[in-house]
C-alpha cells in the first residue's frame, strides 16, 4: 500500500479489530448460503482485495473453515469477542474478501457484482450496472 493512496479504516463491533484498506471503487454482494448463514443477512457485502493491501490491528481472529462451492477451503475470519465477520480467505493467497459493513457509512460504493444471484430473494434488486453472476 503506497502512502499516497487514500485509505479507509473500519472496525468490528467491539473494536478489538481495526482494518485499514485502500478506498474502494466497487463492491460485490454475495448471496451464497454460506454468507447468508455466517452474516445472518440475505447477502454479504465484500471488497475483493489483496491481503497485502490490508492492515489489520488486533488479536488472531477466530476462524471457521468450510468447503466452498468449488470444493476448496473457504476460511471465514471473525472477531471471537463480538462475532463480527472480518474477511473470507479462499485458495488464492492474493485474494481476500473483506466485509464492507465494517467500514463507516458513506465509504461503501454501490455493488458492481452480484454473486450467487440464483439465491436472490424475489424482492432483492440487481443494482444498475451491476453484473449478475448466477453461481460464483
Ligand atoms: Zn469485535
Ligand atoms: Zn458468499
What do these coordinates show?
By secondary structure, this protein is mainly beta. It has a single domain, classed as glutathione-dependent formaldehyde- activating enzyme (gfa) (Alpha-Beta Complex). Helix content is 5%, strand content 38%. The protein has an eight-stranded mixed sheet. Strands 1-2-5 form a three-stranded antiparallel sheet, with no helix packed on it. Strand 6 and strand 7 form a beta hairpin. The structure holds zinc ion (ZN) (2 copies). One zinc ion binds next to loops.
Core attributes:
glutathione-dependent formaldehyde- activating enzyme (gfa); binds zinc ion; 38% strand; 136 residues; eight-stranded mixed β-sheet; three-stranded antiparallel β-sheet; mainly beta
The domain count comes to 1
> Uncertain spans, ≥5 residues at pLDDT below 50?
none
| CATH structural architecture | Alpha-Beta Complex
Please state the overall shape, judged from the principal axes of the Cα atoms.
Answer: globular
Helix segment count?
Answer: 1
Strand order of the largest sheet: 6-7-8-9-4-3-10-11
Overall number of strands: 11
- Percent of residues in β-strands: 35-45%
Q: SSE string, helix = H, strand = E? A: EEEHEEEEEEEE
Q: Main beta sheet: strand number and arrangement?
A: 8 strands, mixed
- Structural class, from secondary structure content? mainly beta
Q: So, the CATH homologous superfamily?
A: glutathione-dependent formaldehyde- activating enzyme (gfa)
Which ions, cofactors or small ligands are bound in this entry?
A: zinc ion
The CATH topology annotation reads as: glutathione-dependent formaldehyde- activating enzyme (gfa)
Rounded to the nearest angstrom, the distance between the terminal CA atoms is: 28 Å
Q: Which percent range fits the helix content?
A: under 10%
Quickly name the level 1 CATH class. Answer: Alpha Beta
Radius of gyration: 14 Å
User: Which whole number gives the mean pLDDT?
Assistant: 93
